[in-house]
Amino acid sequence: MSRKLLSEFLGTFWLVFGGCGSAVFAAAFPELGIGFLGVAFAFGLTVLTMAYAVGGISGGHFNPAVSVGLSVAGKFPASNLVPYIVAQVLGAIVAAAALYVIVTGKAGAEIGGFAANGYGEHSPGGYSLVSALLIEVILTAFFLIVILGSTHGRVPTGFAPIAIGLALTLIHLISIPVTNTSVNPARSTGQALFVGGWALQQLWLFWLAPILGAAIGALVWKLFGEEE
Q1: Which of 139, 141, 142, 174 has the fewest C-beta atoms under 10 angstroms from its C-beta?
Q2: Transmembrane region positions (predicted)?
């Protein structure tokens, strides 16, 4: 079990460090940055690479909502949920801490939004709480459907990380303007702890919506996708 938890820690660390790091530095240096498209691909690439690196050990969840969804779908034991979620959240926090140290290592640097998730005035595009809730639920539900479908026994083995990574890239392309894209409570928690204030006050939504969406996606998959 310790190998699985370490894998989840490392995978979530890489997701937050790579994905949020790309967003933080793109915002800090727009003239040199990778832009909206680059940030979306950075998140997808973190999941793709770590799914190949350690997915064979832990299953490659790197996301509390994914773990919950897989449990609802009957693909992951509920008894492992708490240890997995703890490992994922710790990985996200350590990654956010590393980014904080790096970002503030420049004289006069400020962390700004620090790639935190938000709605209302803290949404990149000014979208409401309802908009944020709905998009996070829908996108996490479809993320679970992609995960369950691409890892199903009838699909050729070895390609699931590609589909999952590209799905996460698409998710970011859709929702960065709305919420800065969560679909992952651990990713949201790490950044919110360092931003504080509004980010912590709004963090509840980025736990509730992804977990609800993941459970819905798992139930939808069980209705039509499980049969061999």
Answers
A1: 174
A2: 36-60, 81-103, 127-147, 159-178, 204-224
Give me Rg for the CA atoms of the chain: 17
Sign of CA dihedral 130, 202, 38, 137: negative
Q: How many CB atoms lie within 10 A of CB 97?
A: 14
Using CA of residue 81, residue 82, residue 88, residue 92, what is the dihedral sign?
A: positive
**Separation of alpha carbons 20 and 96, rounded Å:** 8
Rounded CA separation 112/104 (Å): 11
Residues 109-147: b if buried by 16+ CB within 10 A, e if exposed: eebebbbbbbbeebbbeebeeebbbebbbbbbbbbbbbb
pLDDT tens, residue by residue, 33-75: 788 899 999 999 999 999 999 999 999 999 999 999 999 999 9
**DSSP-derived secondary structure letter, 204:** T
> What is the spatial distance between Cα 220 and Cα 214, in angstroms, rounded to a whole number?
10
- Classified as helix, coil or strand, 125 is coil
Taking the whole predicted model, whether its pTM rises above 0.90 is answered as yes
First and final C-alpha spacing in the chain: 30
Tokens of 9: 């820690």
List b or e across 48-60, with b for residues whose CB sees 16 or more CB atoms inside 10 angstroms.
Answer: bbbbeebbeebbb
Instruction: With residue 54 as reference, give the H or E element that holds it.
Output: helix 35-58
| DSSP count for the chain of H helices, then E strands | 10, 0
